[in-house]
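Form 7-S
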Amino acid sequence: MCLSVPMKIEEIVGDKARCSAMGEERWVDLRLMPGARPGIGDYVQINRGFAQDIVPAAEALQAYALFEEMLAILDGE
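Output:
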């Protein structure tokens, strides 16, 4: 099973984007994006190093809150 994570695009160079989420940064490939190409400031769903879809900012922030909640529960065990 894979967990895809929404990340915010900080920089775009060719077909690659430097993205950030929850204190982490990754370079991801944009070539599998369907439709319109995302821009700086957009949130994209990342899976295995590829951006797969543009995600609304509110949805990405909600996912971050859920991840933080799960981490807090795991740290408490």
